[in-house]
Amino acid sequence: MARQWRVAICPLAAGLLLVGLVSILAAPGTAAETEVVVVCREPGLPIPDADDSGAVDTITFGDDLTVVSATVAVTLTNVWLGDLVVTLEKAGDGPAVTLLDRLGVWEGNTDGCGAEELAALFADGAPEAATESCEPVRVSGELRPATPLALLAGRRLAGSWQLKVVDRAAGWTGRLERWCLRVEAAPAPQLVVTPAALDAWVAPGMTRTVTVTLANQGAAEWRWGEAPAAAGGELLLVEDFEDDHLPPPGWEAVPATGWQRVSGMGHNGTQAALVPWADGAQDVRLNSPPLSLQRGWLTMWTWGSASICGDTERCDLEVYLLGEDGDPLLLGRADDEWPADHSWTAHAWELTPHLPEEGSVRIVIRYVAEPQSAPVLIDDVHVSGLARPAGCNEPPASWLAAMPPVAPAPPGGQSALTMLLDARALPPASYSSTLCLPGNDPRAPLWPLPVTLNVDGCAAIPPPAPDLTIEEGPGGSALLSWTPKAGQAAYRLYRGSRPYEETLWRELSAGARTAVDAAPGSAAFYRLEAANCSGAYWAGSGRVGWLVYSLEQVTGQSGSVAPPAGLQAPAGTRWHAVTVALDTGGRLARASDLLAAIPGSRRVMRWSAPDQKFAVYAPADPATDFALQLGDPLFVLLDEQAGPTFTLVGDVPEPGQVGFEVVGGAPCRWHHISLPLEQGAVRDTQALAEAIRGPDERAVEQLLQWDAAIQNFVYWVPAPLGGDGGLGTSFATSIGHDYFVCLNREVTWP
């Protein structure tokens, strides 16, 4: 293994040093890279006297890592430790960890520990608890925090970490001199499952496989079935006994009168739960509500006396984990940690190693004393960790199964999970279950995927094809609409700048009737698919399109060739080319319809190849009106009242529906053609010349394109067969637009 070592040293009072190995880089193929990050600050902040706002200092990390473990070093001076509560919190990310909580405060000593300095390293594995260490002047060395730092595991390192020191009693002030935060952290995966819930349909007596996407938005590889290196969580149970009920709601006291509420003796408030002195044996229990846990820590405070308990044969405060099987597991005995005199003592037990794979557990606090009992208090019972997601307390239904293997998902990448839905033994109905996906995401070691199985005969019936229409909506938007039909359960809309090159644009549920494209641009094409109830069968609509032709105002007349007769625009007018590239359903049947559709238009012309001249329609002579054909390229004469664009919407013709029979000769003969919508591969003049050709030789002698900006043509002469380049100005070609070609032979195209 290749290692890179960096060392960070944080000086503390009394000569205590905190040394961190900052980076251990694993060799390729080994465990994920782990870093130990150490940051120290010397804020020198005064601690406000008897003020819950406290002294707060912040360390900010930018590292995209996940916490594995943490330790904290703190130096306080000129204090009265019995007044202070010290906590560490990741801002906005779970509960705070209490490092020190009014050291030495108990029934007979409300002032607590009078030490004036603290120079301690708080670590979960320290030999001495922070509740027990009181020296006359200075408390130092390694201490176990009041609540475990392990609760921070699984949280994102990036963000603000706040150390807060609160003085809870008047009469003494002090300073937060310095503190260090040492965090062992590692990259972690972050799983996102799509869809978040699955609704599937299967025909009776059939099976079906479905697939969900497992995306990894984290910085480490996500792996199926592997437990995370560390996982934190949140507060799942908080009981401070401050309400008016004992047992609290959801709790159970056995016997019902065994526990009492007591005022004025609480650890962090005024109330606590008490088992009073009794002249006789006692066996009382307090059972928590059911908890469904993946990982967890139990912390609690108890008040008892080892010396007073020593006067009895048995004085045990036992803590159990009770599963649904009814077999209690002893976590530990709180009385083993009691000091000689009555005092509040913090306890912590890790629950994770003892949790069942399924079902819930209860925390059972049992006090057993004989032949007589001493008084015992409990308070601030907290369970932190990760709750088992809803539905993950029991196996999935028999009709639902994952189908491993599941490939790992790299950082920023994805994998897939295939599931089997088996309706062979199910009558028609809807069924629900949850499949819990195990993996190494510390925030979601189990990802719940709700699955609904609808067993219905419709799953085997293909849906009817939808009918998609398009029109121009407000603000230059494209309004798409269709009429839902029986048997259509969902829709997919595809969109592209060329037909036959669409990609998925939107997914819509059953009952949807419209969709709006607010910015379709100069060319957009759409296709709609409808699914049956199972999604196993899809039927598609025909394509519809949107084409915008520029009608911008222009000035000047020049060009590389003289325009044909009839294209010299009178003053105050301009010629623009448009094409009937879409099937408008009869809206543009004649030249007069086109003039009516374009305000400010005066005349329409169409080239007649046999006559080698334009046929002209002018409204003053109705007899000149002519029928329009699909694919017709046209010239429209516009005055100053015309708008800047003309939008054409309609159905996309089927391939081959638009074609031209062109006759050549010597000299070549001119033809006005448009580029059919299925010819998207023809992108420039060279490609168009090669597409329009005879069996052996080039058919195109010249290519012209109308340039409305100069009110004239630009030209291009193809290079000899097999050559490159050509003469004139090469230009790009676009589907749905027009071109003049001069042909030397007869060609049918496309």
Which features characterize this protein?
single chain, 750 residues, mainly beta, Jelly Rolls, Immunoglobulin-like, 5 domains, 8-stranded mixed β-sheet, 6-stranded antiparallel β-sheet, 3 helices
Can you give me a brief rundown of this structure?
By secondary structure, this protein is mostly beta strands.
Mean pLDDT: 86
Count of helical stretches = 3
What's the overall geometry?
Answer: elongated
Low-confidence stretches: 1-32
Radius of gyration: 40 Å
| Number of E strands | 52
What's the main sheet like?
8 strands, mixed
Number of domains in the coordinates?
5
Structural class: mainly beta
**Percentage of helical residues?**
under 10%
Strand content: over 45%
State the distance separating the first and last CA atoms.
66 Å
Report on this model:
The protein is mostly beta strands. It folds into five domains: 7-186, Jelly Rolls (Sandwich), CATH 2.60.120; 191-224 and 404-459, Sandwich (Immunoglobulin-like), CATH 2.60.40.10; 234-387, Jelly Rolls (Sandwich), CATH 2.60.120.200; 461-542, Immunoglobulins (Immunoglobulin-like, Sandwich), CATH 2.60.40; 550-750, no CATH class. It has three helices and 52 strands. The strands form twelve sheets. Strands 3, 4, 5, 7, 10, 11, 12 and 14 form an eight-stranded mixed sheet that branches. The two termini are 66 Å apart. The model is unreliable at 1-32 (pLDDT under 50).
Element layout with pairings:
Layout: E1 7-11, E2 17-21, E3 23-24, E4 34-41, E5 45-47, E6 51-61, E7 66-77, E8 84-90, E9 97-101, E10 117-122, E11 128-129, E12 138-144, E13 159-167, E14 174-186, E15 191-194, E16 198-202, E17 207-216, E18 234-239, E19 252-254, E20 260-263, E21 271-275, E22 282-287, E23 293-304, H1 306-309, E24 314-323, E25 328-333, E26 343-350, E27 361-370, E28 376-387, E29 400-402, E30 414-422, E31 429-438, E32 446-455, E33 469-472, E34 478-481, E35 490-496, E36 503-509, E37 514-517, E38 523-531, E39 538-540, E40 544-550, E41 574-579, H2 591-597, E42 601-608, E43 613-617, E44 633-638, E45 645-651, E46 660-662, E47 669-674, H3 685-691, E48 700-707, E49 712-718, E50 726-728, E51 738-743, E52 747-749
Parallel strand pairs: 10-12, 11-12, 16-32
Antiparallel strand pairs: 1-2, 3-4, 4-14, 5-14, 6-13, 7-10, 7-14, 8-9, 8-13, 15-17, 17-30, 18-28, 19-22, 20-21, 21-28, 22-27, 23-26, 23-28, 24-25, 24-27, 29-30, 31-32, 33-34, 34-37, 35-36, 35-38, 38-39, 38-40, 40-45, 41-44, 42-43, 42-44, 46-52, 47-51, 48-49, 48-51, 49-50
